[in-house]
Amino acid sequence: MSGGSGRPASVRDLRPIALSAYGPSALSAIGTGAITPVVALSARHLGAGVGLAAFMVALLGIGQLLGDLPAGAVAARFGERTALIGACGLEALGMLGSALAPNVAVLAASVLVLGVSASVFGLARQAYLTEVVPVALRARALSVLGGVSRIGLFVGPFLGAAAVSRWGVGAAYGVGLASSVSALLLLLVVPDLTSGERAEQLREPGRRSVLAVLGEHRRTLATLGVGVLFVSGARACRTAVVPLWAQAVGLDATHTSLVFGISGAVDMLLFYPGGTVMDRFGRVFVVVPSLVVLGIGMALLPLTGTFAWVTAVATLLGLGNGIGSGVVMTLGADASPDRDRAQFLGGWRLMSDAGNAAGPALLSAVTVVAPLAVGCVALGGLALVGAGWMRVWVPRFDPVSRRTLARRRGMGG
């Protein structure tokens, strides 16, 4: 597991690396936020039915799943910075293809490319920060990364809407293309902060495959990695159950959007406090409360019936989601080996993305045979089970918990 020995000690706060570490991520997230609401509309304009149009949106997530393991291999082979530059170029091509798509097939291929590029970008950025930031700042660094991405996804739809209102649906992809190109240009001009030791590692022969690295760390993936399925699934379910329940109790689209906006604002405000708690007291003090709050919030949702109460519970869910910003990336960084890190993180992100897909799918399966209220309670219960699971396994990989235990043993000796 990573202990920070190969990382440069000169990076002692996040401000000197803020532009290079977070600027491209913010720009990329703005582009993704701009195009996500219009993908289905683009498909409809090209003649797709409702079901196929919905599948076009799902292709973003499918592309991420398909890209996770190859992303680990790419970052291991060429380095994190080169992978980031390549991901931005690939994203720009996906944006351009989506804007100019003459039929649904070309649109589908372009959207799939966007999902793959997002996977490569996310893994390379996580590995990059894990390399350049010391363990004492790791959770804050990765929580800020998660927060910056959420802010970009929040701002992007507004920029996309402004462009669409003036130039049509295709203009949203223009916003995305501009964001991708800007991120690429920024990466080309900012300094590479990865350590010289990392460059030496890339030149070493005998680089191991992703599957070989994951096989070596299968116990980690079967314990802590399973917990990540709970975390990612609970988060994804939150974005699904709130609008569905709002509609079930009779709220119109405007009020539903307002509920989601308020919840999202609370979510965005809490990423840095959550990272600070993880760095000072340990990861378990964030991941467990986050899952408990998400579980309680989903279980309480069926008790609401008015705009005010739905908003209150949605805000509670935003609180639970917000304090856990960056926790999945932090746990992956903690569990990753100093060597073969990118390959390991490819498998880690695959489990996280699988949880993102499995959560809403499970909600859908439950609601086929039971009312939505039962689905909310069932998913809330699973989140609480996940909290118990993480309470057991997180301290075994958490460098803060291990340091605390070592100090106690030393005092006892």
UniProtKB/TrEMBL annotation:
Organism of this sequence? Lapillicoccus jejuensis
One matching Pfam family: MFS_1
Describe its membrane topology.
Answer: Multi-pass membrane protein
The answer on whether this UniProt entry bears the keyword Transport reads yes
* Organism phylogeny: Bacteria, Bacillati, Actinomycetota, Actinomycetes, Micrococcales
Q: Which InterPro entries match?
A: MFS, MFS_dom, MFS_trans_sf, MFS_Transporters, Tet-R_TetA/multi-R_MdtG-like
Keyword annotations:
Cell membrane, Membrane, Transmembrane, Transmembrane helix, Transport
- Please give the GO cellular component terms listed in this UniProt entry: plasma membrane
Q: Note the SUPFAM superfamilies from the entry.
A: MFS general substrate transporter
What residue intervals traverse the membrane?
Answer: 21-40, 46-66, 104-124, 144-164, 170-190, 253-272, 284-301, 307-331, 361-389
Q: What is the name listed in the Swiss-Prot or TrEMBL entry for this protein? A: Putative MFS family arabinose efflux permease
User: What Gene Ontology molecular-function terms does this entry list?
Assistant: transmembrane transporter activity
Listed PANTHER family: INTEGRAL MEMBRANE TRANSPORT PROTEIN (PTHR23517:SF3), RESISTANCE PROTEIN MDTM, PUTATIVE-RELATED-RELATED (PTHR23517)
Question: What PROSITE patterns does the record point to?
Answer: MFS
Domain named Major facilitator superfamily (MFS) profile is located at: 17-398
Query: Where in the cell?
Result: Cell membrane
Q: Which Gene3D superfamilies match?
A: MFS general substrate transporter like domains
